[in-house]
């Protein structure tokens, strides 16, 4: 029998409670602020976090009370990586878990683009892993000490998680290749000059500015907001349909035949990553 409760809109009271250990949510006048965190500090990325991303985007997108979304982090870092998640080499993972990893990696960013039909603002509060989520938003602003970089290649892994796809789409083919191979930092001013972000602000002004932009967006009729978001996000939908599956597959195939293991290489390059996160 058709169950309207199971298939109908989701409610903030329910999903904000479900994800409260990873995402703190506040909504005022239709504007939903989603703040990533772990124990009140920067979000510490691990595999449960990766799986949660795809689900949270779906729940947010199914709630008609959400009219603009602000995505931000906690403290001075966007989110932190945890090399210990690679203690077990990917080639030694059970096959079923490898397949789950593929789907979770896709949904982490694909569902953000495909499931959320409202204007989005990324307020990147500092350096950190998976910053592509902030640049997938319609408008991206960042704190003035933020650095963007991709360390996959330096760690001996093809860059297939969406960072290079974002660089390709925003910066162009040659610049994206340069930053993919070198892993060099793009500081906030360079990110502004390159078009990776739209504004650079002191950290204390970042979230107030995000809300100011959100309130400005809310002044337009609802249909105008939704359809404008559809127009400006269409390029991302095309990019994911055409390239993300291919890029991610290349990364996971290489990981599946990697005998040394990512963790070992990351430990050799630990100082390099720590410098990038400062």
UniProtKB/TrEMBL annotation:
Annotated InterPro entries: ClpP/crotonase-like_dom_sf, Enoyl-CoA_hydra/iso
UniProt xrefs under Pfam families: ECH_1
Cleaved signal peptide residues: none
UniProt family annotation: Belongs to the enoyl-CoA hydratase/isomerase family.
Name of the protein in its database record: Enoyl-CoA hydratase/isomerase family protein
Species assigned in the record: Paenibacillus tritici
Lineage: Bacteria, Bacillati, Bacillota, Bacilli, Bacillales
